[in-house]
Each structure stands twice: as C-alpha cells, then as structure tokens.
Amino acid sequence: MSPKLPASRRILSRLASAAALNVERQSQRDQLRAITADRPSIGVSRLPRASAVEPGAGLVVVEAMKLENELRAPHAGIVETVHVAAGQTVEKGMPLVTLAPTAGAA
Fold first, then answer.
1. Can you tell me the distance from the alpha carbon of 73 to that of 13, in angstroms, rounded to the nearest whole number?
2. Beta 89-90 vs 77-82: how paired, if at all?
3. In the predicted model, what is the mean pLDDT of residues 39-43?
4. pTM given for the model
5. Chain Cα centroid distance, residue 48
6. CA 60 – CA 86 distance, rounded (Å)
7. Does residue 27 contact residue 10 with C-beta atoms inside 8 Å?
8. What one-character-per-residue DSSP string does the chain give?
9. Sign of the CA dihedral running 52, 54, 57, 62
10. What is the pLDDT of residues 64-97, one digit of tens each?
C-alpha cells in the first residue's frame, strides 16, 4: 500500500492535473481552428486577414509537385491570422490560416 500524500500535496497534484488538461483542451481548440498544410508545398495565394468566409470557401492556394490545391474553410468564420505569404515554402502540418468562429458558430 502506498503512503498517503499530505493534503497540500494532493491539492497541488490536482491543480497540476487540471492545468495540464486545460492546456491540452486549448491546444485541441487551436488545432481545430488552424488550417494546416497537408504536404510540403509553396504558398500561391491567400485571402486577406479579417475576411468573412462560409463553409467551403477557398482560403489559400498552395502548389505541390506543380499542382495547385485550394484549401477550403471547414466552417464559417473570419480569417484571424494568415501564416503564409505567396512564394513561401511550407512544411507538412504548418498552419496556413487561422479561422475565428463567427458569433453564431462559437
């Protein structure tokens, strides 16, 4: 049988666990909002920041292996941050655009 921790250590342990869970949840929310590159490519064109978009709207065009691919919005939102410029090389998994949910979608 393991020895019982003092109350103060148990409380600190619970707080640390709760904080780690909150960080993980925030990270998951951020990943859902970010549109990422599915392969190494080069940015071709993009929407300007603060553009309102509907589901399926084109956000950014990237070129990979001489083929252009338009990445589309998975949900309605406003372009919060644009992480790529035309001509910039991007790696797989790199965020390209971050969408903020619209007031009705939050």
1. 40
2. unpaired
3. 87
4. 0.62
5. 17
6. 10
7. no
8. -PPPPPHHHHHHHHHHHHHHHHHHHHHHHHHHHEEE-SSSEEEEEEPPTT-EE-TT-EEEEEEETTEEEEEE-SS-EEEEEE---TT-EE-TT-EEEEEEEPTTT-
9. positive
10. 888 888 889 888 888 888 888 889 999 999 999 9
Look at 69 and 104; give whichever has higher pLDDT.
Answer: 69
- CB contact at 8 A, 36 and 94: yes
Kindly state the tokens that stand for 103: 């007031």
- Give the per-residue pLDDT at 89: 92
Residue 26 has pLDDT above 80, yes or no: no
Residue 87 near residue 75 (C-beta atoms within 8 A): no
> Distance between CA 75 and CA 54 in Å, rounded?
6
Asked whether residue 2 carries a pLDDT value surpassing 80, the answer given is no
Amino acid at site 52? A
